[in-house]
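Hi V.,

You were right to ask for the full record rather than a summary. Here it is.
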Amino acid sequence: MSQGESPNSPERVVQIRRCACVVKGGRRFSFTALVVVGDSNGKCGVGYSKGSEVPVAVDKATKQAQKRFEYFPVIGTSIPHAVEARYGSSHVKLMPAPAGTGIIASATVRAVMESVGIKDILTKKRGSSNPANVVKATMMALAKLRTRDDVARLRGVEI
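Predicted structure:
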């Protein structure tokens, strides 16, 4: 929730970077934005885009994130089971927590969890803290989640 976003906002700006291109008349700046968008009900998407101004970059990243919505299983206020994922040298571990625990996570992972609608979770981030890689590793970890019904259907058994 960096950049002054409200907790109920549908988009969460995780990172904004400024890039300078040196031209004959001086420096020409461009901006990149990493945005997480979710419905707080199990759906979330990530967008990363460039623009000449910050609002332009954020709008483009938001539209990209909305196109990339994915569904993740949420049981109550937490996740069904512990899961780990790596992206690049970023390593993220997500562990379910009892109700009332809250989101114990870094700001980058917290943005994804709040967007998905998870309210109680324990997380550990190791390796690189590059926000883009941490967000992608978190999304990969969430994609590995399975409910009991999913596993039963995959195995061909009844619970």
